[in-house]
Amino acid sequence: MMSKMYLKITVPSGIFYENDVEIVTLKMSRGYIGIQPGHSTMFSNIEIGTLTIGWENKPGTEKYFIGGGLIYVLKDRINIITDDIVNVKDIDIQRAIEERDRLENKLRENKYSAADAYSMELKLKKTLLRIDTYNKK
Description:
Number of domains: 2
Structural class: alpha+beta
């Protein structure tokens, strides 16, 4: 039996996920990283992308879209803090496609302040990655 480590994912409303896991894979600034028991201590930002709990393509593996956050890793514990995470099975793909189209049209209008345009571009990036994560499930 593989060794496991404790994973806790916290969102503003409380604990989103809490369980012992074999591996967690998520995107950081230099790309995707898999964290297993015994990993060195680390504190870092999480990039927008897919968070996978368990081994890819194995029964029981769970996939989530995560819209960024923070991660703190100890030898046998992972703590993730985020305000945007959803199970891939729960993504409303039609809504995401409509949101993508709406944001792309608004950005084409080019009548927004730099701050508003930046905010819309960030929302569009999250929406595109949410769609991509859904399509890879």
